[in-house]
Amino acid sequence: MGITELLWRFPSAQMAWRNLGRNRIRTALASLGIVIGVISIASLGITGVAIQQQATSDLGSLTNEVTITSGEDSSTAGVTADQVDEVRNVASNVDVVPQYSDATTISSRNGQEENVSVIGLTQANVLYDVSAGESPERLQSGVLLTDSTANQLGIEIGDPIEYNGQMYRVRGLIESDQGFGGGGRGQLVVPESALSDRDNYDSVTIVTEDGDAATEIAAILRDHFNEETHNGEVDEELSITDYSDVQENINSFMNTLRLALLGIGSISLVVASVAILNVMLMSTIERRGEIGVLRAVGIRRGEVLRMILTEAAFLGAIGGLAGVLISLVIGLALFRVLAGDAMVVFEWESARYLVYGFLFAIGASVVSGLYPAWKAANDRPVEALRG
Amino acid sequence: MSVIALTDVVKRYQTGHETVEALKDVDFRAERGEMVTIIGPSGSGKSTLLNMIGLLDTPTEGQIRLDGRDVTDFTEDELTEERRSEIGFVFQDFHLLPMLTATENVELPTMWDTSVDRHDRAVDLLHRVGLGDRLDHRPDQLSGGQRQRVAIARALINEPDILLADEPTGNLDQDTGRTILEELTRLKEDENIAIVSVTHDEQMIGYADRVVRLIDGEIQ
Ligand SMILES: Nc1ncnc2c1ncn2[C@@H]1O[C@H](COP(=O)(O)OP(=O)(O)OP(=O)(O)O)[C@@H](O)[C@H]1O
Ligand SMILES: [Mg+2]
Question: Would an 8 Å CB–CB cutoff place B115 in contact with chain A?
Answer without folding.
Answer: no
